[in-house]
Specification:
Layout lengths: L2 H11 L4 H8 L3 H9 L6 H11 L3 H11 L4
Helix pairs in contact: 2-3
């Protein structure tokens, strides 16, 4: 799963709009839109912030990345 799909899937699972999710993780709506469309790649700290907010262990995600070629 590519980063843009990963972020959008999380947002949709939480049933949030882009504006709501951007506020939830503490970034600008325009940045989130760029991440979801692939126009920009989120820095690692943003991925960690998302994982922290939704309660996902970053070490688990690193393991999944290596195991399933998840692009984070």
């Amino acid at each position: 799963m590519k980063t843009k799909q990963y972020i959008k899937t999380i947002r949709n699972t939480l049933k949030m709009t882009q504006s709501e999710f951007a506020e939830f993780i503490g970034i600008k709506h325009s940045n989130l839109a760029n991440y979801e469309t692939g126009r920009a790649t989120p820095p690692g700290n943003i991925i960690l912030k998302i994982q922290s907010k939704i309660g996902v262990d970053p070490f688990f995600m690193q393991h999944m990345h290596k195991k399933n070629s998840l692009s984070i």
